[in-house]
Amino acid sequence: MHRLTAILLALSLTQGGLSAADNQSPYVEYTERPIKALSAEEIDGLRAGRGMGFALAAELNGYPGPLHALEVADAIHLSESQRERTQTLYREMLDESRNLGERIVVLEAELDSAFATRTLTDERLRELTARIAELNGRVRYTHLRHHLEMTALLNPHQIELYNQVRGYGTRDGHARDHHHGDH
């Protein structure tokens, strides 16, 4: 039975069943990237300190982020002192994320270069990937921590307004009820 399957497979392949295009990697267009593992948008995002989904666990569970709180400041009735503190939180988050992001880009370029020049050893591979993973974790922590700090700055009504303005309602169209203690 296995022999018959092999013969049928061989016939289908020789009869044009699979073309070279069927075997082409979905990564072919990545071969021209300066850093193969990062798109231009990812490099720009890391260097600019953008969120890039690092804080989705917080954002989508009712923990506002500083940037978006500033964007909707009037709608959520931020006081002047809250605006000032939010701007400070945002600048801190951005500065930390930019510094970490730049380090990630440098290490990814180093990893890519080591593969391209065929000079990578197992020890160096272990070191680079561990450092990149640690930095990615620190970027994510930075963004998530600032969502926590932002949430502590707001009162429950402001958080509810934030969720409404951002479109994060429950199935019945009402904003989630998040109680984060007295603010």
Shape: elongated
User: Rg, please?
Assistant: 24 Å
Q: What is the count of helical runs?
A: 7
Beta-strand percentage range: under 5%
Low-confidence stretches: 171-183
Mean pLDDT: 87
The secondary-structure class comes to: mainly alpha
What's the helical proportion of residues?
55-70%
Cα(first) to Cα(last) distance is 72 Å
Describe the model:
Helix content is 61%, strand content 0%. With 183 residues, it is mainly alpha-helical. The longest helix is centred in the middle third of the chain and has 37 residues, at 80-116. The radius of gyration is 24 Å and the shape is elongated. It starts with a helix and ends in a 17-residue tail after the last helix.
Provide a concise account of the structure shown.
The chain is mostly helical. Helix content is 61%, strand content 0%.
